[in-house]
Amino acid sequence: MSPVLQLAIATLILGTSGVFIKLAALSPLVMTFFRAGIPLIFVSGLFLYRREPLFWGATPFLLLISFLDAVRGLCYIIGFSYADLSSAVVILYTWPLFTTLLSWIFLKETIPRRNLWLLPCFILGIIVIYADAEISLSSRSFLGLTSVLIAAVLVASTVVMYKVKAADFSVYRLIFYQNLVGGVVSFPFLLGTQPWPNLFQFTMGGIYGISIGIIGFMLFFSALSKLKASTTALLCYLEILSTIVCGIVFFQEELSVNIILGASLILGGSFCLKKTGDVAP
Fold first, then answer.
1. Mind listing the pLDDT tens digit for each residue in 230-257?
2. Which of 247, 177, 235, 220 is nearest to 21 (CA)?
């Protein structure tokens, strides 16, 4: 299978995440176990079967990525649990802006003048989408959008890290470290949850962990090291289409004027960003 097709399929699969999160209706920490714990168990079993060391190649840098990914995953699940899928996925795709800003702050990369002019597009787009939600700490939609915004910042923080490591590790090793912290930390919350998840919730959580955490990211990481950054970033926008379609089909979500306008500003600015080293989340 060509890497372009691999990434396209992976991105469309990732776009279904919100369906399983909403249908399972489990606490974010328990759902984090299904998302991270199932892939972790799968690849750990594979390494033991092959008699490979579980923690081969472990470094503080990789553990940092794993920790950030655990926080990102939790924020992602909270966001897609509380907010509409369409507005959540649009906010998530502010990550190119944060990638540009973090590269400027930490890597001392020069920001092209054109990118500076695009900054107001992102800010205005975020404001427009937030205007659709009640601005209150008690508002589920507000908390959901804010969680997704934090997840977008964490995507920007880890995105280049994975691109750097993709050439040094196998797909299974990358999946192992991606889910290590999240899977281990969330496991006690699964054991202590009351009431215990029913069969339907277990099924939704299991499909979520297998389809997203294993199949989706096996295809994603396999394609990541073979494609140019610009191609990777472009194909990942299929996730937005997939998520919006899922929201309309499964939850009868409607695209409000605010979402359409905010999406136009954010995604338009994202497409116009002059990328030289970006990769997709």
1. 566 667 778 888 999 999 999 999 888 8
2. 247
